[in-house]
């Protein structure tokens, strides 16, 4: 939808009036894009057996204030990895606004409205979901289009090269993000296998059908990545590091990949979204007290003794860090 919106803007700047069928086509493409996303999302959920509709529905919360603040942070070049190039988009935006002043009021309003939609549409997810936007890795395409559209009004070769340059830089950043993500995912698979193997080696009579498992703390910072991508959000983040240690995330990762079928044990009540997706056991007050008395004497991973049998549950300790989920 954003690309087609840019196409309409290009035609208007070239002297072609905006027609009703153009707006209808934009709406149709928008609906098609949403349907395509839902189909892909449904297919992934089916393959992995995830109950994501409940998770999403619990996160829906219309928040215009958060949307405005997050969008301003993004366009100011801050908060997320790679957003520094977003500042450059104000150059073609300024040119389009200047050219729009030559049109009649109605054409001017429609053109500026389309420009606003093109710039804000990719961020609309954060308007209805109770979370900040993640990494808008495809924005370089929109920015390069706006530079290409306005290049006919600027007689500088370097300006025309910016369209290619922004796509090139964006591609590099996208590659680094997904490289970090793939390497971390591969490392998580190896780690999960080691953890499950250690669990069964240390607790000979462990029965995953009757004994729940509690992961405590977070995995120490990974050192295999080429660089720390500041502001990369979940890209390159390990399931064993999120939330400073999240037991049900770790167990779910292991269970989803069929390495085991661990019963999830939590210390405190989960959120509505987590509770809708997970089957979990609540830790008793007696078990909480036993954990507090012994936790400081338990070594951290990868020491094999980090796996301890507490009778009613098994503890696997990664670090001394205590998160909000423990």
N-to-C CA distance? 43 Å
Class from secondary-structure proportions: mainly alpha
What coarse outline follows from CA principal-axis ratios?
A: elongated
Low-confidence stretches: none
Strand proportion: 5-15%
Main β-sheet, spatial strand arrangement: 1-5-4
The secondary-structure element order is: HHHHHHHHHEHEHEHEE
Average per-residue pLDDT, rounded, comes to 76
Helix content: 40-55%
User: What is the number of strand segments?
Assistant: 5
Number of helices: 12
Major sheet summary line: 3 strands, mixed
- C-alpha-based Rg, rounded: 25 Å
Provide the descriptors you would attach to this structure in a database record.
326 residues, three-stranded mixed sheet, two-stranded parallel ribbon, 12 helices, 5 strands
Strand and helix map with partners:
Elements: H1 2-13, H2 20-48, H3 52-59, H4 64-75, H5 90-100, H6 105-120, H7 125-128, H8 139-150, H9 157-202, E1 213-216, H10 247-256, E2 264-266, H11 272-277, E3 280-282, H12 285-294, E4 307-309, E5 314-317
Parallel strand pairs: 1-5, 2-3
Antiparallel strand pairs: 4-5
Helix pairs in contact: 1-6, 1-8, 5-6, 5-8, 8-9
Give a nutshell description of this structure.
By secondary structure, the protein is mainly α.
Question: What does this molecule look like?
Answer:
By secondary structure, the chain is mainly α. Helix content is 54%, strand content 5%. The chain contains twelve helices and five strands. The chain has helices spanning 2-13, 20-48, 52-59, 64-75, 90-100, 105-120, 125-128, 139-150, 157-202, 247-256, 272-277, 285-294; strands at 213-216, 264-266, 280-282, 307-309, 314-317. The strands form two sheets. The chain has a three-stranded mixed beta sheet with strand order 1-5-4. It has a two-stranded parallel sheet with strand order 2-3. Strand 2 (264-266), helix 11 (272-277) and strand 3 (280-282) form a beta-alpha-beta unit. Helix 1 runs parallel beside helix 8 (139-150) and helix 8 (139-150) runs antiparallel to helix 9. The radius of gyration is 25 Å and the shape is elongated. The mean pLDDT is 76.
């Amino acid at each position: 939808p954003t690309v087609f919106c840019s196409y309409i803007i290009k035609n208007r700047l070239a002297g072609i009036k905006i027609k009703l069928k153009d707006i209808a086509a934009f709406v149709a493409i928008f609906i098609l894009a949403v349907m395509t996303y839902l189909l892909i999302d449904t297919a992934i959920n089916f393959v992995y057996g995830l109950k994501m509709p409940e998770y999403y529905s619990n996160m829906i919360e219309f928040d215009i204030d958060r949307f405005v603040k997050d969008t301003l942070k993004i366009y100011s070049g801050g908060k997320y990895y790679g957003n520094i190039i977003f500042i450059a988009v104000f150059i073609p935006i300024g040119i389009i606004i200047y050219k729009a002043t030559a049109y009649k009021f109605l054409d001017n309003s429609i053109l500026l409205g389309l420009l606003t939609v093109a710039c804000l549409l990719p961020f609309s997810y954060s308007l209805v979901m109770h979370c900040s936007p993640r990494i808008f890795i495809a924005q370089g395409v929109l920015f390069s289009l706006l530079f290409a559209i306005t290049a006919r009004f600027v007689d500088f070769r370097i300006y025309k090269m910016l369209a290619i340059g922004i796509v090139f830089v964006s591609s590099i950043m996208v590659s680094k993000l997904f490289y970090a993500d793939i390497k971390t995912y591969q490392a998580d698979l190896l780690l999960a296998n080691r953890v499950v193997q250690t669990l069964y080696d240390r607790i000979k009579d462990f029965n995953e059908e009757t004994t729940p498992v509690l992961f405590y703390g977070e995995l120490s910072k990974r050192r295999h990545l080429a660089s720390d991508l500041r502001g990369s959000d979940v890209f390159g983040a390990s399931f064993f590091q999120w939330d400073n240690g999240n037991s049900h995330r770790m167990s779910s990762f292991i269970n989803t990949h069929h390495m085991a079928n661990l019963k999830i044990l939590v210390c405190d009540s989960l959120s509505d979204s987590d509770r809708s997706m997970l089957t979990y056991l609540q830790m008793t007050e007696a078990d909480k007290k036993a954990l507090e008395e012994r936790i400081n004497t338990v070594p951290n991973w990868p020491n094999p003794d980090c796996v301890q049998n507490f009778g009613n549950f098994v503890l696997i300790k990664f670090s001394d860090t205590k998160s909000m989920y423990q």
